Every structure is written in structure tokens, then in C-alpha cells.
Amino acid sequence: MNSKRVNNGAEQRFILVFETGEEVIAGLSAFALEHKLDAASFTAIGAFHDARLGFFDWQTKEYQPIPITEQVEVLSLLGNVALDRGKPMVHAHVVLGKADGSAHGGHLLEAHVRPTLEVTLVESPAALIRRFDRETGLALIDLDASASARSNASVSDKMN
């Protein structure tokens, strides 16, 4: 994957270009870790040669896999990055278009690019924190913890 920062403001914007064969979630996770992202959102378009989506089953609290084993267009890929136990966690949903015009969507668990995936990622200046939620069985964004992290960072910045 190649990347380029395309602005230097309060919100950092990056363009990431994935190449054939690269795995998307692993690549985004590595980028988030390398750039120490603690809050970001992203969108993307491109194509995959295979993907594994998930549909969250409320009863079992697990993702039911939806395998896609053919070339598909990425009609929409949306997601965010937030801290989970101190490390950046990528959360993404995708809609994929098949050759017959049908579409499949869900939580993106894994996908391999062919021929490219173009991602626009915007880093936020405020941290987002995920906390495990017992009711859902998921790590959800905790706005109270995120606000506290933002306040602590502001105090720390002023002291430095």
C-alpha cells in the first residue's frame, strides 16, 4: 500500500492506494498503528477478488460469515478508527456489487484487493475510545471516555 498526506491542518487527510493482493483490514490496521491514529474516518472505492463479510447475530453475539468468492466492485466502504485497549481498531462496513448487478453488504472482516482500492482517510484531532459493552458483546465507542481522553490530552499539551 502506498500513502500520501494531502493536507496539514487540524484534521489530517491521507490517500491510501492498495494494490492487487493486499488485505484491506490488515493494511488499514498497520497504517493506523504506524501513524498512531486514535480517531479517524475513511471511505473507499475499488474492487476485491474475494471478501469475507459478517452479519452480527444478536442472539449469539457473533458475526455470521458471508463469504464472497468472486471479483466484486467496492460500491461503498465506510469505517472508522478508535482506540480499543490503547491500540487503534479499524471498524468497517462495505457494500459490494457483483457482475449481475446484485449487491451484498456487511461488516468487513477481510478482503483482498484486485486491482486497486483507493481510500481517503481523515484523522480527527480528538481521541475516540472503545469500551466493551456487555449487552451487545461489542467494543463500542464510549463518548464519555473519549471526552475524558480529549480533556487529558489538552491539559498535557498545555503543560508541554
Question: Mind explaining what this structure looks like?
Answer:
The chain has one domain: Hypothetical protein, similar to alpha- acetolactate decarboxylase, domain 2 (60s Ribosomal Protein L30, Chain: A, 2-Layer Sandwich). Helices cover about 20% and strands about 60% of the residues. It starts with a strand and ends with a helix. Strands 1, 2, 3, 4, 5, 6, 7, 8 and 9 form a nine-stranded mixed beta sheet that branches. It has helices spanning about 25-35, 145-160, and strands at about 1-10, 10-20, 40-55, 60-70, 70-85, 85-95, 105-125, 130-135, 140. The longest helix has 17 residues, at about 145-160. The model is unreliable at about 155-160 (pLDDT under 50). It contains two helices and nine strands; from the N terminus they run ββαβββββββα. The protein has about 160 residues and is an alpha+beta fold.
Which parts are unreliable, with pLDDT below 50 for 5 consecutive residues or more? Answer: 153-160
Beta-strand residue percentage: over 45%
Total of helices: 2
**Average residue-wise pLDDT:** 91
Major sheet: 9 strands, mixed
> Structurally, how many domains make up the residues?
1
Query: For this entry, what is the oligomeric state of its chains?
Result: single chain
How many strands appear in the DSSP assignment?
A: 9
The CATH architecture term is: 2-Layer Sandwich
**So what's the overall shape?**
flat
Predict the CATH topology. Answer: 60s Ribosomal Protein L30, Chain: A
Tell me the series of helices and strands, N- to C-terminal: EEHEEEEEEEH
CATH superfamily: Hypothetical protein, similar to alpha- acetolactate decarboxylase, domain 2
Helix content: 10-25%
